[in-house]
Fold this protein.
Amino acid sequence: MITLSSLRRGLNYVKRSNSSSNTICLFLLFIALTSLLLINISSERDHYNNNQIEIIKVPQEAINNSDNVSPLNSDSDPNDSTGTPTVLQKTPDATISTMRETETAVPDSEEDEENREVAIQKFFGEIIRKIFTEYNPGVTDPCSYNFKEKDTASKLLDTSLGTYLEKSPSPGYWEESVDTEWPLLTYDSLQNNYLKVQGSVKEKIKERHTSFIESVLHTNDMKYPGTKKYKGNGIVFVAGGQYSVLAYSVIEMIRSRGTTLPIEVLIPENESEVDKKFCDMLSSELNGKCIYMDSIFGDDILSTYKFKGFQYKSLALMASSFENCLLLDADDYPLKNLDHIFKNEAFTQNGLILWPDFWRRTTHPFFYESANIKVNLERRVRNFIDAWSPMRSDIDDMSKIPYHDFQGTMPDPSSETGQLMISKRHHWKTLLLSLYYNVHGPNLFYHLLSQYAAGQGDKDTFIAAAHVLDLPYYQVLSVPSLDGYHEQGENGGYRGVAYYQKDFREDYLVQKKLREMMHNNEFKDSEDMEDYNPIHFRDKYFKADLSKSHALFAHCNLPKFNPVSLAVNQEYTYENEHFRGLNSKECLGDLDMENEIIQSYYNVICGDKENIFEWMVNKDDPVVCDYLKKRLELFANNPL
């Protein structure tokens, strides 16, 4: 703009002089300013090319073939968000720039490094203070007379979120679930049958919730810190104590798979001493480092406001130095090289990748109300995960339609956040709102998002934040695969040990093909779809067996691979004989995961490497080393 204005002023001046002698001046001025203009344009293009993420929110009507949608109310608000996973196209520079986060200024020069750290601490501290105080909804745990959980109370107070009549069921997405469990997911059921939100607290919850959303969207004191704080790509863990033991074996496997991405591990302030040797090895041998909470957030904040459990995940993402992060649980093992995951189109066009859980959503309708999100109960926009076929908006009986098939709701299935990919530049606001949901999760948002269905916790806080802020995200729909074994003995049954989450890049190709089929009208016509079933649709494109060879992560949480607890409990043994816990060759491919995990522990506890976990187990502990040695012998004698 400055260059163009200068050009116009120069030309006007020469014209006003009305002298033929100025012709040369005019020509030279034109050449000089045109050069400046080209340099300016080149600089802008370089800025654009250096920013990988290209995001624009595409309305559902632009994604779906509107001719195939049959809303009951044709006057529906076209600005309503449908929550359908967005798969977006490249956009003009001006549109992309509107999606970029404005950066918060921090000191820049090397001599100001200390001032920069102080500024960041102050910046983060003010955000945390506001979340805990100014925007605190002020509610306490809901009351439950029929069951007891750690986040329920035995007495109803004026400040209680409400009362549980019973836990929400956890409807799966299997054939038998359609008729028996899906009717439990209607608006009326989710509103009235499980958690009854107390009327006296609704107004304050809504006021604080919407006020925080407005602050994230429009105030200057929560803006993205920019490249002075965040650069590059990397992998992030939350660890400390027992979780550092687990994270160690995961990190060893990451390196054995050839991944070179740097790694950062958040250590809670009360775990720093026991983790010193782990952190030293991480930095000296594994291209990683530990981040201590007090160095990022400051002692004053940590002594005033207490964090626990799932809340550390959002804090880890804030504390990490990476702009683009893969957040992994300490028991979630990558099975392939991850070096190029941030370059894939699914990520560059959305900035947030989420993986599925085994259940449909049970989010309470008041969650949407408290965020001022309009849900259109007269317009069905999907049938479970089917957002493409002509039958996606088919309506038999409005009263039986699952609530999360309607426009404005988050799409099924519920999320599983053992792994999550996020661009902080483009989802900084999502990260802030997810932190708000996690800080006030145990007493409020975890209940509204799940109503004590299976897996209640942080799992839906990230997708909920992006959805509320109308920011794009990509949901993997390929069904996870289970792995485990059949227990021996009279009462033996199947015991699941791990579940495999699939490669989002392969899933993206399937969803891309479905979009093409929809736009080209390649789906079977209505006559051929008389036996349509959303489960059959899922099985045709996203069934677990179809994508076993594309397994990307193995989430091993029952039991966790802690060497001491494995040995003490003699896991994976029967009558003193060892057997394998993981057996899915199709998912594991050439990787003998159990062998690698046990070998990594044997090396530090029983082998030549320094025992970095001496606070937990002595070097050459006979019980642990005997167990680990017998496991390794099993793997050697019985290849996968």
In short: DSSP finds 24 helices and 18 strands in the chain. The first strand starts at residue 143 and ends at 144.
